[in-house]
Task: structure prediction
Amino acid sequence: MGFLSFALFMLLLLCVLEFVSAQPKTEPLEVDAMNKIIDHWNLRRKVNLNIDPCIQNASWAPETANPRIACDCSATVCHITHLKIYALDIYGEIPQELFLLTELMDLNLDQNVLNGSIPPAIGQLSKMQYLGLGINNLTGPVPAELGNLTKMISLSFSSNNFKGTLPPELGNLTSLQQLYIDSSGLTGPIPQELSNLKSLQTLWASDNGFTGKIPDFLGTFTQLKVLRLEGTNLEGPIPSSFGSLTKLEDLRIGDVGGSDTSLDFLENLTSLSILSLRNCRISGQIPEHLTTLPNLKILDLSFNKLTGPIPASFRNSASLQYLYLGSNNLNGDLPTDIIGSALIALDVSFNPLTGNIPTYRKDISVNVVGTSINDVNLDNEKASQMLHCLQGNNTNCRTKNPSTSFSVNCGGVEKVSADGIKYDDDSEMMGAASLYTSTNNQWAVSSYGIFISNPSGPRYIAQTDSQITNTLDSELYKTARVSPNSLRYYGLGLENGVYRIELHFAEIQMDDDSTPSWKGLARRLFDVYIQGERVIEDFNILNEAGGSKKALIKTFEANVTNTVIDIHLFWAGKGTCCIPLQSTYGPLVSAIHVSQVSEFKVSSSESDRKRVGRIAGIVIGCVAVFVVIGSVVYLWRAKKEPAHMRVHNESPRKD
Ligand SMILES: *[C@@H]1O[C@H](CO)[C@@H](O)[C@H](O)[C@H]1NC(C)=O
Ligand SMILES: *[C@@H]1O[C@H](CO)[C@@H](O)[C@H](O)[C@H]1NC(C)=O
Ligand SMILES: *[C@@H]1O[C@H](CO)[C@@H](O)[C@H](O)[C@H]1NC(C)=O
Ligand SMILES: *[C@@H]1O[C@H](CO)[C@@H](O)[C@H](O)[C@H]1NC(C)=O
Ligand SMILES: *[C@@H]1O[C@H](CO)[C@@H](O)[C@H](O)[C@H]1NC(C)=O
Ligand SMILES: *[C@@H]1O[C@H](CO)[C@@H](O)[C@H](O)[C@H]1NC(C)=O
Ligand SMILES: *[C@@H]1O[C@H](CO)[C@@H](O)[C@H](O)[C@H]1NC(C)=O
Ligand SMILES: *[C@@H]1O[C@H](CO)[C@@H](O)[C@H](O)[C@H]1NC(C)=O
Result:
């Protein structure tokens, strides 16, 4: 009791001292609101707000403070202008008291676990310039009242679970320079009113259910430097108006259906450093001017319909590091000299290219799988020959001592499972365009892509020390291969017949711990193709397994008619990009077990050609066509299993 009254006395003394100082007073309504907010989010331990929040030199005022409260005291009374509560896992709803802080110009609530909806009262904060609500668990509609905040310079509501469409009122935010709305949950058309956002420099809009055509008006945002538009339901063509976006440095469009686009619009986009137009129905030839972009570092044109030769003038680029041209219709010989001085990785896989592989610098990774190029450099000549069976025009692959099964511990060392199956070592470090063939020549793996935003961050192997549940083979799941774009396993030298394919998964990069955290808001989505047929779309390991670090086995059946099997894990632009770390996305697989179920007689070489042709060519067509199909059919298809493929959803073995 004595201590308490002493403490109270000291507090009073402090307050009195406060009053006598020259410090201007803070608007009492705001002080009261601020205290209620601090209590609402249980932050009093982190910010000991027992005095005026706008006191000079307060410990919570510097820009680096978190939570941060900062004020404007230029008038006779102070107002709270800045509030930051960043990545502190505050949870619960946005309290009404927040909207009493009407002078707020910078509100950063990014990376928390806020739920409920954004109250329409947000429209009262009309001084707002920087509003961050990204990476939270918010639901409901995005309120039209946001359009009232016309001073806004930067707005983020990425990575939430909103419903509905983009409100047209956002078109009133004509000062907006940065808009982050990726993975927001929104669907439907992009409203025409957004054409007023002429000051935009950065637009992240990937991984949403946006429909309709890619808006023409995006091509009038001449200040744009960064545009991300991957994994939506938008349709091509890429408007020719994009030819005016001469300040673009980073353009990523992907997974677009609709009509074809040529690369002509790129003629004047000379600021580009990253250009990724994967899976966009790009047709025509690769124009020479693309090889002369002075700052281009990453060029990804894979999974398109490009024809003609690969321009040799790529060798003149002093900036190009990663060149991805896989899964197109490029033909002719691979130029003997296309390697520029900065090049690190070249992928030309699955193109009808011919000739011999030129001798390149040793430090370059080159992937020519699925072409007719003679890869004399490949260490493993036997595997090289067997990989030729993946080529479109190779009709009669025969193998001397065919095998009938293979097993891989993806990303890990050799392991024997509880039921006695030996899973081969697959711990080879792979790079940005790699092919690795197993020492026993039974399988190969190729991966292409770089984790663009964090090239030095997540590698191509994921690892955990945690136990994996729902399995007797925890060890098998503690490593996995991951890829930013395309991860492909090939079974080689197999006896033809019907095979059973077991794919083992466990989510080990994304966490869903029991304590609510923004780190638990990640979504990984990818597609799986076997022998060129899509067998899973928008696969979410964590959801299907019922949590992270839980084993899940998916089983499929497929025919081997040309001694090879092709298991392709493909990122179609969906899922969150950056939770818990930048560049955490893309396909992940823990182990693979393939074994023959029965033999069959192949009737004629005619059927051989068809099947193999599909391996090489169908992926592009399949993906693109699917995007065109309306969302009703989409849902129906997603629920229904493909008729031609038996899919067993085997429940994982129990401990
Ligand atoms: C606040 O800090 C500045 C310099 O850091 C100092 O000059 C000033 O006296 C401080 N004011 C108070 C009230 O402590
Ligand atoms: C928000 O989360 C809290 C628990 O953290 C829960 O009690 C509340 O019902 C949730 N609100 C909504 C709208 O989901
Ligand atoms: C919009 O802002 C004005 C002040 O600029 C305010 O008076 C009005 O209430 C706000 N409207 C909404 C819907 O919040
Ligand atoms: C905001 O946008 C809506 C719809 O685009 C429009 O009707 C309204 O007049 C605009 N409001 C202001 C204050 O400009
Ligand atoms: C590129 O700029 C030139 C010169 O201004 C112009 O004639 C041409 O049409 C532009 N190309 C594209 C694709 O916009
Ligand atoms: C098939 O591959 C060979 C090289 O193995 C090549 O010479 C030939 O042009 C290819 N044929 C077709 C139709 O692509
Ligand atoms: C997000 O909200 C949903 C309910 O809307 C809840 O099931 C989920 O656990 C929440 N996520 C986190 C990380 O709290
Ligand atoms: C395998 O081939 C048989 C006929 O030989 C066919 O009936 C079956 O549908 C094929 N299975 C798959 C998965 O393509």
